[in-house]
Amino acid sequence: MEDAATWEDDALAGFESRPLGAATLVRAKTPPAAPRGAVLHVHGYNDYFFQDHLAAFLLEQGLAFYAVDLRRAGRSLHEGDVPHLVGDIAELGDDMAAAAAAIEADHPGLPLVVHAHSNGGLAAAIWASDRPAPALSGLILDSPFFAPVATRAQRMATGAVPALARARPLAVLHRQPSHYATRLLEPEGGGWAFDTTWKTPLGVPVRAGWLAAVRRAQARVARGLDIHVPVLVARSHSSGPDSPDNPLLGFQDTVVDVRAIARHAHRLGPDVTDAVITGGVHELSLSSPVPRAAYLSAIRTWLPKAIP
Fold this sequence. Notes:
Structural class: alpha/beta
Helix content: 25-40%
Distance between the termini: 25 Å
Shape: globular
């Protein structure tokens, strides 16, 4: 059992956190009295853990709740860091492996479900295929980043990324505001509050080294993975432009191409369940009430596959 003194009160009420190598581990202060399993939430790009309503739902399912703020993101972002920069998606897998080991130390023998969003979902799929934790019993992918919403010209331009990443990994390839993140904020009508230095409406510049790592991981997903635990792959019903002029900005995925998720989901492993959430935004747990309820219901229905 881990030394409880290493945990400190987190800025998010009801949670505590501690450093975990290059990452930060967060957990709910009050787990179920007799948890049936544990769950680890993994965030995406321009993101960190703040979704306490998701944690409350998973706690209600009898799961001890944990989240990891990955290296150079959120609570793990330190002065001098380039936000979210990695040279290989396996680096994020290292953070997940460390989190899974810490959870096993807290709850020996409990099955573990990983709930991973967007780029975290891409990284979690690679990790679960290559080197899953012994306790891993299920994987929930919320809008995994299998391909971006992009024009044909933008897709063709990525051909030069590998060479540029080798020569200038910090080169900025794309920089624009995140209208999606802006829309999520309470003043903009999304109904959510978060730290805008860690999930910024200004957006996080896309750098050559990061994009090359992501593209390699996406190519692996397209070829097929070897995940041996049940997987729930959830997506919105449609994708659209991340533009303030998009009338469906609050009701569709404006970051990830949901058609790519549909194409690749069943290449992950032998036991994959699809969930299509009409009206869902990119992070389905942050959707408006009706699609959010549909997403949480899909998780509740699927959970017995992972934790009988």
